[in-house]
Specification:
By secondary structure, this protein is an alpha/beta fold. The chain has a single domain, classed as DsrEFH-like (Hypothetical Protein Ychn, Chain: A, 3-Layer(aba) Sandwich). It is built from 5 helices and 5 strands. A 5-stranded parallel beta sheet has the order 4-3-2-1-5. Helix 2 links the parallel strand 1 and strand 2. Helix 2 packs parallel to helix 3. 36% of the residues are buried. It holds the Pfam family DsrE. InterPro entries: DsrEFH-like, Sulphur_relay_DsrE/F-like.
Amino acid sequence: MDERTATPGYLMIESKGNWAGPNAGTFLRDAAALAEAGHRVRVFLVEDGVLTAVGTDVPEIERLAAAGAEILVDDFSAAQRALSATTLSPHVRIAGMDAVAAALSEDDCRGVWH
């Protein structure tokens, strides 16, 4: 059995942008630490959180990707901010709220919203 399937999974939903204050990146660093510890981690960036995924050199996104976390960007929030796949990190995937609903319906998923 894969160690990631034996430990709880997390859906970490980030709604704040990376300029929201001195601790803005803490939530994503916590998500990366969980992934590095062997947990299955999915991060869903929504509202102003989608702006964290803009560009190719975002340390929090790079660390999450290196740790094996799945990083999703809310399609509606991205469209409202005129963001497309070409402006976002190559480590993220645009997804809808149906991805959140599916993840939260899994037996071992723990949802955390920030």
